[in-house]
Write a structure and sequence with these properties.
By secondary structure, the chain is an alpha+beta fold. Helix content is 48%, strand content 15%. The relative contact order is 0.15.
């Protein structure tokens, strides 16, 4: 059972992302993808689970396939798109000697992908709206206390607020409904 823990923003998260980014840039130098820190740990002042969210952005499926092979070569396990077209997810073992930074979620996204836009729009909204940042931080903290070991309920509990932020950023209803269906509690 994994306990959900939400912490006050920690500047170390940015440093940990920079370590990861350096590693990926070296590993993927022949592909030259864009590597972006997304999710709550990427927003200064945001409360978050101490887990980095990292998107490796490539231009097409061919680039994605190359990245998948290279990541598998350093100990990542490709777990597929998890129902999200244009995004490939990975997991890793905590004893992987190639990885020397904090726990993280890793995705390879094709540029322009809907899920990538979701990540970037949410980050932008939180960075530019102090009230939204505070409201989302408070909700995450409360949900983590309420659902200490139920990640599905935790994610489901955030969905309405997140989609409200994305709507404010101009995301259309069809895309918002897809996000709701992906995040829906099973």
């Amino acid at each position: 059972m994994k306990l959900i823990k939400v912490e006050k923003y920690n500047p170390e998260w940015k440093k940990e992302f920079e370590k990861a980014k350096f590693f990926y840039k070296e590993l993927l130098k022949d592909i030259d993808p864009k590597i972006v820190h997304v999710g709550s740990t990427s927003v200064k002042g945001m409360w978050a689970k101490p887990i980095l969210d990292i998107d490796i952005i490539v231009s097409n499926t061919l680039g994605s396939n190359k990245v998948i092979k290279l990541l598998e070569g350093v100990g990542y396990t490709h777990i597929g798109n998890m129902g999200v077209k244009g995004r490939e997810a990975f997991k890793y073992s905590n004893d992987n000697q190639n990885i020397k930074w904090m726990k993280h979620n890793l995705y390879v996204c094709i540029s322009g992908n809907e899920n990538l836009k979701n990540h970037l729009l949410l980050k932008k909204h939180l960075q530019n709206n102090k009230d939204a940042l505070e409201e989302y931080s408070k909700l995450k903290y409360e949900l983590a206390k309420k659902y200490t070991d139920d990640i599905n309920s935790y994610v489901d509990g955030k969905t309405e607020l997140i989609t409200g932020f994305l709507k404010a950023e101009g995301m259309d209803l069809k895309k918002l409904n897809r996000i709701k269906s992906i995040n829906k509690k099973n």
